[in-house]
Here is the input.
Amino acid sequence: MEKEIKDLELIERYLEKTLPNEERLQFETRLKEDEEFSTLYKEIKLVIAGVKHSSRKDLKKQIAGFAAELPAFSEYRLQSDIDLERDFGLQVIESNLKVSARNEAQSSKSSNQSWSYGIAAAIALVIAATFLFFNQTPPEKAYNLAYQEIGEGPYKFLADDEDPINLSRGTRKEDLPQKILNAEQQAYLSYQSLDYQDAIKNFEMAKGEIGAQSPKFLFYLGNAYLADDQPQKAIKTFNELLTLPNNLISDYSSRAKWYLGLAYLKNEEMDKAKETFEELSSNASDSYKEKADQVIEEISWGIF
Here is the structure.
């Protein structure tokens, strides 16, 4: 058993990239020459890869499938539910993801039993899950990466032919007589000027006056909330947009989903964010697919 424990520790350190160069080379040589060790390493890698690229709802099925493929254990080894610390003298220490013998007496007792690499693989499943959980990118860091670097910040205002006073990119609030601007028009001008708080004030005023709004209105209101660090309101607004009839939101659907995913990240709802980005990524023709792919690849999602 002691050998299996050391092997698990070694694999863990290799995956964490903390092995000194000489030990790393020895590890890679052993992978080529030791079939049992190579099998254990591949099993751990498969578990990590499977969990990393799965949604939460699929996780239980994958773990059950992995466990079903393990070698059968003889009856005397399964007299009670498995408890790593009680039965095997092992602890998974969350602070540094190390597996170690609890004490010499327990280690000696365990070593008298003929444990197979199948048992080690079962323990490896726990390690793999723990490894993924504690290597999750912090939500704030994930949001900044997706919003500022990949997404390039708040959505830029785009004028269209429906603007009754031709609110082009170069239009400034001071260039227009204030009396001809209603609350909605004032909101768009404030948004274009990056004055998101004033934009929100006018959007909310317009929404209260005229009730139901267009996809464009809801899209920019949601973005104003997100830029003003109000992710919960942004989430509600983007979801409101996405519940409108498909024929009305075709021009805004992908954009709204992208910023909805960002709002979930900002609100530390990592599972919902990942599901939203995966939906965008699954559509080969989606204009936001490339960005969604990049977010999924560059963020460590952990286990939710």
Observations:
- The mean pLDDT is 74.
- The first helix runs from residue 2 to 15.
- The longest strand covers residues 90-93.
- The chain has two domains: 2-134, 139-298.
